[in-house]
Amino acid sequence: MADTGFIPKEKWGAFIEGLSTKAQVYVPCLEGDTVLFRPFGKEKTLCFERPANSPPKSVIFPQSDTLFSFTFIKDPDNPQKTEVELKEHLDFPKTIVIGSRPCDAKGFTVYDRPYTETDTPDPYYKGRREKTTIVTMTCNSPSAGCFCTAVGGSPADKEGSDALITEVEKGYFIEALTEKGKEILQGPGVEDGKAYQGDATKKQEAVHSMVKNPFGPKGLGKVSPELFDNDEFWDNAVSKCVSCGACTYLCPTCYCFNITDEQTSDKGERIRTWDGCMYVHFTLEASGHNPRPTKFQRFKNRVGHKFSFYPEKYNGVIACCGCGRCIRYCPMSVDISEIVSNLQGA
Amino acid sequence: MSEIAPKELRIVGFLCNWCSYGGADTAGVSRFRQPTDLRIIRVPCSGRVDPLFIVKALLNGADGVLVSGCHPRDCHYTDGNFYARRRLEMLKQLLPYLGIDEKRFHYTWISASEGQRWQKTVTDFTNQIHKLGPLHSTTEAHSGS
Amino acid sequence: MGPEKMKEIITDVLKDVDVVIGYKQGFDKLHATPCFINKAEQIEEIIWSPVCVQNLASFLPSLKAKKVGVVVKGCDSRTIVQYMQEGLIDRSKVVVVGIPCTGVVSVKKVLDKVNHQPIEDVVFEADGAILVKTPAGETKLSLADVSPDKCSTCLYPTPVVYDHLAAEPIKSVKAPEDVYKDVEEFEGKSLEERKVYWEKEFDRCIRCYACRNACPMCVCQDSCIAESRDPHWISQKSNLSEKFMFHMIHSIHLAGRCVECGECERVCPMGIPVNALKKKLNHDMKALYNYEPGVNPEDKPPMYTFSVEEKKIEEHKL
User: Fold this and answer.
1) CB C316 to CB B100 under 8 A?
2) Is any Cβ of chain B less than 8 angstroms from the Cβ of C303?
3) B27-38 in b/e burial notation, b at 16+ Cβ within 10 A?
4) In CA terms, which of A140, A194, A215, B141 is 20 to 30 Å from B123?
5) What pLDDT does residue C127 have?
6) Pairing relation of β-strands B38-43 and B11-16?
């Protein structure tokens, strides 16, 4: 079986529709001015021209995930006795994400290390991850705030994807990268791709040079420990931050969560929901003590996690994919790349 | 309408302890016939009723919400109901903007001695809600909680 | 209107305040970012142009302990008046540098016009035209076409409160009756249409709380009831009713307080028109109590007071 394929422009819609008969397909859809990943439907307006406002992370790591449901059952003969009935939610459908960006796909590899590549993998994340095929699309052009090439990515990066699609003049060139990706080539209307390989490579290289590098010619260096622990540096750097969590919720590599029980009368659910270190309640302890009471401490943690703690733990891998969403959508235009740049010291 | 009572709907009533709650009691003691859809929550004053109580009730399964306090100038705490009036009127006008029929929410003033007035209000409001029907589909109402 | 006069004023102001909040260029030419100036050499960074969109007055309550200078546009200045009405700032510790403003840009609208290409340069010409350069070429836009909706009905181009003014005052040429036209138009839709509209819009909400945290009047900040477990107003579930409830909390707490700076809507990463709810409330406050937030420091917000005889509230009949 060939590892490449080609879909002519006119068959693109039918291709996606065809895949949607075999799996749950998520595609970037235009709603108003906003692009976001939604389950495919014929009535949707698809938009592949620019990166979605939010990455497809919720497909594998939902914003709110029911881990299990529980019901308290009273013994009618002995009201003192209550039994708990549990129902786990581990049934995940086969899913295909089409049109994620290389940065989005790379984000999942950042999740994989703590969630699957450990002795105690997370069954919810792992289950969805295994059932999901990530079909990434090469970026046509960078967006405001993008800096993927400066953190080891590229507009045509293959890491984390099962297949990579590159738009060429007459259609879409597909390169399968994994076994799951090869299945995509069986979709309707896929032709032999060999003839388009050259065009695709040319396109991929052209976009690469357009991405800005905020870290200067030397690239991203080591974070200076003196600056990193300098409170004044952080206080100045983030005085404009309003401490919302848009940056963390839109981040393809932020994976923190909260677990709560939501119960009404005798029934309830244990849910896992997104949480973010930018929120004051994130570290609030039951005693009332909060180890990170100020916004600069919280911001420091966000930068530290991505550019210092995570790389220390996982062989120097930076937990930032350079998608630029935290910069683009920041209410106050706080620029993480500028802060990291300043953190490198002299 | 058929002779058989239609299925009960969920109506939440926030009643001031010093007047309407007593009014409802008066109606009960006087054995006035009343519909049974209303669930009463006793509050110390209509001024205690945060408009968000009403929104929360409507979002989480209530089909209608009734707030009743002391007549203006008769507030046990002098001016709680004056504040309530402004807040509740604000909400009354906001609800239809969100696509929620303002008829699902009613606020009124009933004193402890007005058992008859209470009976009429509760009957009329319940009828009004029944005319509108349930606000939620059954599945939606449960998932919202 | 260049930033030169403003720089002069700020140089002066800086002598007797701890910090001046102004604008500097952000990560590209289309984005300004707030800058906190406490050293004279930072003054050179200051810019003023229609990309200066943020409401800098929002930072004032959190800097109450300091003496602060702040750069405000007409719309933002209403925030300061509202803070004064509610006793949230000490006016004697705030130095207001007002900028008469002819309108700002909506970044979303500009990006839409240039197909979301990366911005290489933005030039504002004297006649109100904007030249936006992207890798795809140069696009000429007019400010009126890419301004946020609030600018098209702005009644206060010159700040309503200031200690220094960075340019000649500008008179509004907009009709007051147009301010709430959009509200009245939306009210023309059927109940069902309105319900469907909001359900669709709120469905996109990710509860990042950008709208709340950027809102100058959301002064509870870390104590917001949206995040409290006890009382448990809303859970962390991401279903429609929880999202809806969050926006109700935000809106209702702003009834008769929203100064219509539009920050909530501007910062929403999901493009939800959240400001429309607050405008509706303001529309009603005007109709019921003839109250307009953030205009007169002596006014009292309508939800903080009452009249024994409410002239405009009629008893509702069943």
Assistant:
1) no
2) yes
3) beeeebebbebb
4) B141
5) 85
6) parallel
Q: Cβ separation of A54 and C269 shorter than 8 Å?
A: yes
- What is the percent of chain A where pLDDT is above 70? 99
**What are the CA-CA distances from residue A204 to residues A8, A198, C129 (Å)?**
18, 10, 35
pLDDT tens-digit series, residues A287-344: 999 999 999 999 999 999 999 999 999 999 999 999 999 999 999 999 999 999 999 8
Q: What does the block give as tokens for A5?
A: 């394929």
Instruction: Give the distance from residue C96's alpha carbon to the nearest chain B alpha carbon, in angstroms.
Output: 33
Domain that holds residue B126: 11-140
CB < 8 Å to A143, chain C: 116, 118
What residues does each domain of chain A span? Answer: 4-343
CATH number for position B54 = 3.40.50
Interface ipTM: 0.94
Distance of residue C197 Cα from the nearest chain A Cα, in angstroms: 12
Q: Residue with structure tokens 């006008």? A: B93
Residue in B89, B99, B143 closest to C239 by CB? B143
For B73, which of C239, C308, C315 is closest by C-beta distance? C308
**pLDDT per position as a tens digit, C100-142:** 999 999 999 999 999 998 899 999 998 889 999 998 899 999 9
With contact defined as 3+ CB pairs under 8 Å, the chains touching C are A, B
* Gap from C249 CA to chain B (nearest CA, Å): 7
Give the residue carrying structure tokens 């009124």.
B108
DSSP class of residue C10 equals: H
pLDDT of A143 higher than 50? yes
Nearest alpha carbon to residue C250 among C236, C268, C264:
C264
Place A209 in a pLDDT band, splitting at 50, 70 and 90: confident
> C80: left (phi > 0), else alpha (psi -120 to 50), else beta?
alpha
- Give the C-alpha separation, A134 to A171, whole Å: 19
C274: phi then psi, degrees, rounded to nearest 5: -65, -25
Best residue in B81, B90, B136 to probe C by mutation, most C CBs within 10 Å? B90
Residues, chain A: 346
Q: Are A256 and A199 in contact (CB under 8 A)?
A: no
As given in the structure block, the two tokens for residue A217 are 């010619």
Q: Do B94 and C251 touch (CB under 8 A)?
A: yes
Chain B hits for C308, Cβ within 8 Å: 72-73, 82
